[in-house]
Every structure is written in structure tokens, then in C-alpha cells.
Amino acid sequence: MVAHGIPLNTLKDCLMFLEWLHNGNGRQRLEEVCRNLYSRINNYFTPTFLPEHNVKEGLRPFLSAVSKFYGRLCYDPKPGTYNSVKEKQIADALLECIPKFLAAIYYLEYCVNPTFKTLGGGWWEKNWTGWEEDRPYFWTYPKYGGDLQKYLRAQIGGEYGGLIPGGFGENEVKYNPNVLHRGYPQGAQMAPDLANILSKGNYNFFRSVFVTSVIGNSASRKENTANTLALVRTFCDIVGGESRDEGGTLKKKLEEGHGLIKIPRSICWQDLKTHCAELRKKLGKLFNDDKRFDFTGQSTAIKDLQQEELAKETAKWLRENVTKVRGHLNKIKEYTTGDFGDYYTKNLFPYGFTFRDRFKIQPSDVPNLAKDLSGVINALREGTNGDLDRLVEILNGTYQGVCKVPEPPPAKVPEAPPPGTEGSPNQGKKSEGAQNQGKKVEGPPHQNNGQSGDTSPPSSGGKSVVPASSPGKDGAPGKPGPTGSAAPSSSSTPGSSSKQAVVTSPQDSVASPVPPPPPATPSPAGPPGTPGKSGATGQDLPTGDAPSQKPDAAQGPVLTLPTSVSTSSSAPPGGGGAVQGADVGGGQNGSQPGTQLVTQPTSKDTDQNPSSVTTTAVATASGGGGSG
Fold it and tell me: Where is this region: Disordered (predicted)?
């Protein structure tokens, strides 16, 4: 709102401005001022309730009551002087003046009317109006102005919780020893005239809670706080009276009010209606229940409102100003104990609250009255979860309660592969070319592994033992023996199809040593073998050359048996040919007779266990080892 340039900082300033409109040069401007306000509010009230002349007719009784009080209070009730002000500036000044002026008048009535004593007021009833502290007096009666004169002479309102102070100068307030002087001898005589100013008998559109809050843009002025809450109550009455499912056109109007906020979400009508019902109940505890509170402005029955338009503007205003309103509520202290007069002076009247049914309250109801005020205020002002903030969240569409769309289920995370998945080492799967994975590796046919070394049966953990090869030496020439059929070699090359029986366990990754087998009876010597070739690798190749082992092929751990121990054999002498397993009986030169252990599977290639493997002793031909 553009600054109107009219001072309204004290009670005296407001009285001079209102007197200017009633009896001063502003009287000729009153018609155009009321027309200006009418043009700004006629969309929110029904035509029958708000014809243009009603704006002026509602303001005149108020100005008349104020002028009467001003004339009795001061020696010289002169109007103010305001040059070059336009009708909109005057209307805006009225919308600012009336709430703060009424808050001060309600407070003054509370202090001078003895019927408020049960609520902590009424103690200024016998203060002499206009009696200055330095005024001389005669005889023996100690007349004094007391707190009444102190307030009227105050220039700042800090002592009164932020209410506008009196602002009068010395000897400006009339002193009247009796009623014949047409003034107020004592404070109690003011009460009837103050009640006329505060009367809500005639509807004054400048006093409307919607007009003072939204049109008057009073969010930053704390004296309009109670009027704002009364406006929220009216808004909730409109929402509660909407019977169409999903809010009909009212809901669409409220969503239009997003304006500059530009939130592309719709209002959850069920949430709004439920929350408004709860808000209405709490605000009713303040304003509707007997022996409770009131506000300085005037509310309007919803039948006299253009409900959708007024609700739309109210929602828009709340979205933009809820933080300021909550800031005022945060300053209202919670009543604990102490003087009611001091508590209400600082926490009730400065925020535009007043009392309802003040003449009927009982002393026993007073403590609960103060607690009701602070209790409702606490519920309204809580951040994020407070009633006002939640209302705005619903209006913005950022809060979705019953209308919340269920979130899509999270994407399925692949489960960990179970034991036996291909490609994982040490899981008992068959994989060509992989080493130390418990696979049976097939070797090429006709390959005789003549490596010298010791072997032992599989451990209890199922870990296979693979003998390491050692470089051979030239063996002693022997007699040629009969040629036997070559068995598959225990060595292999990557990519070959030969298989080796190996038992693994997923739980054991390291072979456990086992005790050596018991001694066996020596096997009979076979016929002499063929002379070994110089530089051979210890393999007997009947035809062609067998592929050599990859130099980078990893070798398994080796368990060596004592060379003096040999295993029994049922094979005929010289009939072994090339066999699987290590040469147990022979030394490095391979010239001693001995046997080999052959591990034979009794089940399929994969997922073997130790119980599925048997070990058979096979005798080699004497001297068939060649070079070691």
C-alpha cells in the first residue's frame, strides 16, 4: 500500500484525523473517499448488502461518536490539516487508523470501567481527567490524574505493550471538577461514550475484518492480528458450507489464487475441509463461546458475501502473509501466574483482542480465560505443523494427506547369486580353463603325466590336491616293455576337454592336511621300459608330442608322502601305461617301481562332495617313468 502521508502514531493523531473527516475540511471529501473504497470491495459483498451509499452510512455514526468523545476530552478539539491528499490515500489512512484506534479505545474502556475489575481492569475509574502531576491544589483533598492522565500524556507506547499512546501535551486534556463543565471529571464517566465508539450496531465497512486485513494490507500491523483470525474463521465457514464434491467452482477459485507462487498442484479438498473444521472449532473457542474474547473489527455473515471471490482473495493473502501473522502470534506470552491487568495490557489489547460478555464473567472463570487464549494461540502459531501454516500448505497444494498418491515401489535389486553360479571361483561349478575352482578338467588323450611327486586323498573339506610338476632328468635306459593303452593325463591345457576329478566345498578355501595312507605291499616289478630320451619332460608320448602345460597355470598345494611308502596295486606288471596321479613309489629319476593314485568320480561333474569320490591304486610299469 502506498504511504498515505497522514500521521497516525498516537491517540491524539487519530482523533484529529477522524475529526477532520467529520467536522473539518475532510467532510467534503468523505463522499469520494467512500466511493473509492466501494470500488475496491464491491466484488466481495452481495449487491443488496453493499449498495454504494452503505459505505458512507456505516462510517458516519462512528465518526460522530468519536467526535463527541474528543470534544469532551480536550479543551480545543481541533481537526488536523492534510493538504494535497487523494481519496485513495484518505481511504488507506482510515483502514490503518481504525484498527489501532479501536485497540486503544478498548484498552481505555478496560481501565476506566469498574465492571472489568474481575479481569484486572477498572482501576482508573477514580483518576481525575486532566489533573497534571505538578498541578497545585488547595485545601486538603489530594486530587490527581493517576495512571489515566499518565497514559493520555504518554508519547510512546512501550509501557502499554505497543498500543498507541495518548500523545497529548500539557493542559490539553480538560480538567473538570464536575459534570457542569461538560467534560469527564473522572475516568468512570468516560465509559458510556467509549462504549458508543466501540458499538457494532451499524455495519462499518471500514471496520470489516476482510477489508482491514486484505484491502488495508495490514499484515505487518499487530493490532489487526485478531481481525485476521476472525477472517480465517469466515474463510473456513465458506469452505464448510460448500456441499459439492471436490469443492466445485470454489476449489477452482482457490487454486487461481496461487498467483505469483505458481505451484502447479491442486488443493486436496478433503484435507481443506477437515482442517477448516478443526480450525473453526479452535477459533470458536476464542470468539464464539460465552465469556470469551472478541476482536476490534466486524465480521460478515456468509450469506452477505460473494463467497468464492472473497475466499479466493483471502487464500491469496494468507499465502503471502502467514509468516507475518504468525510472527505477531509468537509475541503473545502464555499466562502462568500474576496480575491479570498487566498480562492483558501486554498480550491482549495490543493485538486487537478484547473481551466478550465482560459483565457476566465470574472470578473463578478468569484463570481459565487466560489459559484458553494462550492455548489456542499456541496451536495456531506453531511452525510447519501449526494450524495456520498447515492451512497455507493445503492451499498451496504442498500438503497432500488423504489425496497423497502412493509412491511407486522401489526398483527390485538383483538378489545375490546362489552358490553354484558360473564364473564365481570356488563354488563347485564347471568352468573351462579356470583354475582352483573344483572343476574336472579334461586333458587330451595319449598324454602320460610322468611328473614325480606325492599325492594324498582329498581332505575332509573337499579341497583337491594337484601335484606340482618338476623338471625331469635323463633316466637310465631300460628294456622295452609292452605298450599299454594311454589313460588321460592329469595335466591339461586351458580350453581342453579333459576332466580331472576334484572335490571342493564352498565353505573351505584351504586344503586341510591329512595323514598319509598306510604302507602297502610292493608291487612286482614289470619288464624293463624303453630308454628315456634326453631332455624329456617325464611324459611318455607314444605318438606325437602332447601339449605342454601353460607356464602361468596356477598349481595347487602339494602334500608329499614319504618315499619309502608305496600303495598296493591290483594292476598287472607293465600294464599301466600313462596314468593319472603322481608317482608315489619312484624317486626323481623314475627308475624305481611304484604305484600311482587315481581319483575317480562316482557322480557328475558339478557340485561334488567327498563322499562321491573313490581312490584306486594303479601300478606303473617298472622303469616307465622316464626322466623325472
Answer: 403-628
Residue 109, all three cell numbers? 474502556
Question: Residue 198 carries which side chain, given as an amino acid letter?
Answer: L
238 and 348 in one domain?
yes
- Please tell me whether the overall predicted TM-score, pTM, comes out greater than 0.90 for this model: no
| Strands 353-355 and 613-619, sheet pairing | unpaired
Report the SS3 class of residue 619: strand
Residues 240, 217 contacting (CB under 8 angstroms): no
pLDDT, tens digit, 9 for 90 and up, residues 443-469 = 444 444 444 444 444 444 444 444 444
Q: Say how far apart CA 347 and CA 350 lie, in whole Å.
A: 7
DSSP 171: T
Question: And the C-alpha cell for 155?
Answer: 508519547
The helix/strand/coil state of 335 is coil
CA distance 234 to 287: 12
Which conformational region is residue 269 in: left (phi greater than 0), alpha (psi within -120 to 50 degrees), or beta?
Answer: alpha
DSSP of 66-118, one letter per residue? HHHHHHHHBS--------S--HHHHHHHHHHHHHHHHHHHHHHHHHH-GGGGG
Domain range enclosing 330: 208-396
What kind and span of H or E run contains 322? Answer: helix 307-330
Contacts of 170 (CB under 8 A, 6+ apart): 132, 153
| Residue from 455, 466, 492, 485 nearest 583 by CA | 455
Is residue 318, in this structure, part of any structural domain at all? Answer: yes
Q: What does the alpha-carbon distance between residue 489 and residue 500 come to, in Å, rounded to a whole number?
A: 9
Specify if 520 maps to a domain. no
